[in-house]
Specification:
Layout: E1 17-22, E2 25-30, E3 35-39, H1 42-62, H2 76-85
Antiparallel strand pairs: 1-2, 2-3
Length: about 90
């Protein structure tokens, strides 16, 4: 798999979410920010990972963190799983 590069900035960009079941839990991943959560249902996992990503972006802008925090890809295993599911 090629190195992943993003161009997310404070004013524009994109995020990709992945939710999958692992044993008795659902795992939610924001692929561009390397954020991972665990929840009991698919719906909760999606809601939580979206909320987490929103707060991540909001704090990056508020505290003027380097834009690199908006372009930190999740491990390749999650990207491979995403590619298999789409």
């Amino acid at each position: 798999m090629k190195n992943l590069r993003f161009n997310n900035t404070y004013t524009e960009g994109s995020v990709t979410y992945l939710v999958f079941k692992e044993k008795a839990k659902f795992i939610g991943v924001c692929l561009e920010f390397d954020l991972v959560i665990s929840a009991d249902t698919h719906e909760d996992a999606m809601e939580q990972v979206r909320d987490y990503a929103h707060l991540w972006l909001k704090n990056a802008v508020k505290y003027k963190l380097p834009e690199e925090v908006l372009n930190k890809p999740a491990p390749k295993k999650y990207w491979k799983l995403y590619k298999q599911l789409i």
